[in-house]
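ok here's Valine--tRNA ligase, seq below lol
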Amino acid sequence: MSILYVSPHPDAFPSLRALIAARYGEAGEGPGWGGAHPRISLQPPPTSRTPFPPPRLPALEQGPGGLWVWGATAVAQLLWPAGLGGPGGSRAAVLVQQWVSYADTELIPAACGATLPALGLRSSAQDPQAALGALGRALSPLEEWLRLHTYLAGEAPTLADLAAVTALLLPFRYVLDPSARRIWGNVTRWFITCVQQAEFRAVLGEVVLYSGARPLSQQPGPEAPAPPKTATQLKKEAKKREKLEKFQQKQKTQQQQPPPAERSSVSAPNPRGIFMMCIPPPNVTGSLHLGHALTNAIQDSLTRWHRMRGETTLWNPGCDHAGIATQVVVEKKLWRERGLSRHQLGREAFLQEVWKWKEEKGDRIYHQLKKLGSSLDWNRACFTMDPKLSAAVTEAFVRLHEEGVIYRSTRLVNWSCTLNSAISDIEVDKKELTGRTLLSVPGYKEKVEFGVLVSFAYKVQGSDSDEEEVVVATTRIETMLGDVAVAVHPKDPRYQHLKGRSLTHPFLSRSLPVVFDDFVDMEFGTGAVKITPAHDQNDYEVGQRHRLEAISIMDSRGALINVPPPFLGLPRFEARKAVLAALKERGLFRGVEDNPMVVPLCNRSKDVVEPLLRPQWYVRCGEMAQAASAAVTRGDLRILPEAHQRTWHAWMDNIRDWCISRQLWWGHRIPAYFITVSDPAVPPGEDPDGRYWVSGRSEAEAREKAAKEFGVSPDKISLQQDEDVLDTWFSSGLFPFSIFGWPNQSEDLTVFYPGTLLETGHDILFFWVARMVMLGLKLTGKLPFREVYLHAIVRDAHGRKMSKSLGNVIDPLDVIHGVSLQGLHDQLLSSNLDPSEVEKAKEGQKADFPAGIPECGTDALRFGLCAYTSQGRDINLDVNRILGYRHFCNKLWNATKFALRGLGKGFVPSPTSEPGDHESLVDRWIRSRLTEAVRLSNQGFQAYDFPAVTTAQYSFWLYELCDVYLECLKPVLNGVDQVVAECARQTLYTCLDVGLRLLSPFMPFVTEELFQRLPRRTLQAPPSLCITPYPEPSECSWKDPEAEAAMDLALSITRAVRSLRADYNLTRIRPDCFLEVADEATGALASAVSAYVQVLASAGVVAVLALGAPVPQGCAVALASDRCSVHLQLQGLVDPARELGKLQAKRSEAQRQAQRLRERRAASGYPSKVPLEVQEADRAKLQQTEAELRKVDEAIALFQKML
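and the structure came out like this:
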């Protein structure tokens, strides 16, 4: 057996790293090296078995006499479940390897250097402030990277995070106090997120962060704290905040309404085409949540893009009446304010109260959507209970009922005893239990036991022995009062002798036949299953096959009926206790055991859902589902991402008929009437008999149809309308065409139906999307839309489902405006959570948002949500990443402000964006990069690849326009050549104009505000950015490979110079730079970009050496490309002796590391026992170490020459 030897010291972070990796190996598919999970030993390895020299801890012995591996990096890599721990693909694995190397070579030395002296474990050779500064420099790359990333590689912890977190354990425990953690906010957030993971917590326990204090001058940080701000500065900042809030909240008329041309004549031909999309109607009771925010960010960006392309565009708003949710809200309000139930008030008066509530509160969700900048056509807002939509619902029901698609039947339904209504599958939450659990159930003072399996016996009738019995087990012991049979498998040898026999029910006068059915699992329990057809779906189907009676033992409130005393009238869970006690009293109880199970809960009432037999209205879905499935197979309907097509076909192929009855008052009352005929020749009907039901658009029409059906005069017909209402999803399924007045023909219906796109979350693919497709095809003969794009579901930064009880639910308005931790706590107090859940939620909020949620603004939230929207199933949303996009908004603002200053007050843009004849190299380059951004943006919108669009735009603005072009422009605008400067200004204006138009669909507020500050090319230019043409590749066709190649070289040289300056701490000096080239072409290119390198790299002289010319003495070297080396002059700028000492220590460590790797790879059994990916990692690590050694040797030789 393998053994992992670790140090018992609680701060031995290398051993902790190995232990956490082992935990991940246990949670995954086993350690990456393929062996079994190792045994943990806190004792040192026996000297008799250890190699020489003895290994450093942690050490892994791979079986007695097997291969030894030691050192935290190698051991953790072997124990981690997925090799390098990278999220798929070699590129990700390389990223993980780079961060692991950074942790080993940079973070650990800096962390130990800053921490160990503070603990008195090492006498520091350098002063403490220098050690803290070194730690700050090591943290800087982490802070920058984590500004836009939740983890170091991918969307879950990898070996990179493990290496870096354990390297920083000591500083976070003993050095980084609260003020330091505020400086390194992104690193702190990431560290806390990682150590909260289950695998980390299992090893580390609760990580207590350092709470001490030291002078701010001794804090590890990139710079000294700013002095206190003056009153003038504070006033200026307040004014800036006021302006920011003003433009973020400003709703320009053009942004809220489509352009007039779209409204004047929608049927006018438009060569650009038509784009129509309807909003997934939110509940009238709803308030904004991140699901709404994601949906609307995507839909609004698509709508704005199509509108800016000149298409006739309609994004239709609407709101759903939300039958159950709204009725519950108003019922609670009535009881709270007036002490009345709806039954005391009466149906008509109650509905008046609901409409009154709707008029007062029902448009709240619209106001919240407007705050998100949603450019819906608000004039077309509709409500599913509006007369127009209600008429469509009635028409659809009558047509489908007349065709036999809608029918009446008595079947099992999901029943909420608290709501006294059937509910749909989407309204059922499945609570998973691992064993015995006590749950609160509405209407019961004491908690009810679930998660146990109770076994009891039925005696065999007519047996020669009183002991012969059949033992069955159930999680719902009260339902045994409704048992009508016991089922066994036809091939089970234990029960063959019971064919034709019956069992005795201990409390009832009926016998229970033993039936033989293939559905029984012989291996589970005793192989015998009690059959209760009226209260279990599987039992109901068995009952249908064997013609068993279905006896209902519960009424609509959950009280027992059709049972003998003392059980009669008991609430179902009180009956559970009574039945169990009675079985024990009669000696039939055989045991109870824990049983993992799923308890169905009504998500509205939190009641346990009960399967009950009820007469209901159903939609026959078979043929409609086949047509919907065939539409996708033919390609008439595209579902994106395509992975969801498999789910679509699986649902359509296995669809069941749809129960559309709801026992509510609020909603579309079913237009069906029960018929009573005043004629002795016509026998009275019963509820389940569909012949005695008639539908009609009015009661008069229904009466005429009933009279015709029974051959009597209308005056002999009495009608009673069904009290129930239709499932909310029925009216929602008609939404794409009912909003245009169907069944009446209209201009809107002709032009905008079928729609272009349906965009929504994948969680309602069946409940809403499939039903829209089925009903659209059935009632109109057309698909309601041509494409369906399904976005991912938003989860928290840890991948957990958002839940109020976890405290991780995020209100988008809190992200927009910011909220303190106390503000988040206060929101919990106004919720419906139990006090215990409130405390748990507060702890979750404190862990995730220790300083509350910072103000991010609407644009940053929209852009961040779209950037997150990979075409997958889940989004792990980290608010700190949204904060990074707020900084991006600030960058846009400052860059545009600088650019406008550079353009000057008298600047007049040229009538077209075409370049002139005097553009510089960097002008041509930025136009080429802008062309690429335009291409990627349009391509991404067409493919619904929103991360590709946001990445292209973010990269252009931040890394190309701001970091490069604006810097290169500064000397040009201040220069004497006005012709070149004017060309640069025209190019800069084009970048601003096109760049803002590119961003506008995602960031409508800040881009509109900045666009209004730009001069216009022509007097006929549109007044608002949102109706300005979106940049097209045909408009921006300035691709310039030569300019890009030249600037790529300039940027490579710049990176090499910056790297050397950082290596030698030359932050405030402009050292000279010499470029050694391999050929004349590269030399010419380097000469052309030398001025740009000088600006971008903050270098002194940048000179290109002649071919074969010697390099000046005292230069450090770095490789810019395979054709160009960079030599940075260090002579006179650094202390050679000091640098030599550091390099000698670095070489010794690198030599030891290389030697260990060589010995490891030379060990016997290494090629056969070590996995290939680990061998490849070792090979790469050795190559990297040897390359570092060569670089160190070159630097040593350089400094020796300088002595």
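fwiw Residues 83-89, 214-226, 247-263 have pLDDT under 50 and may be disordered. kinda neat tbh
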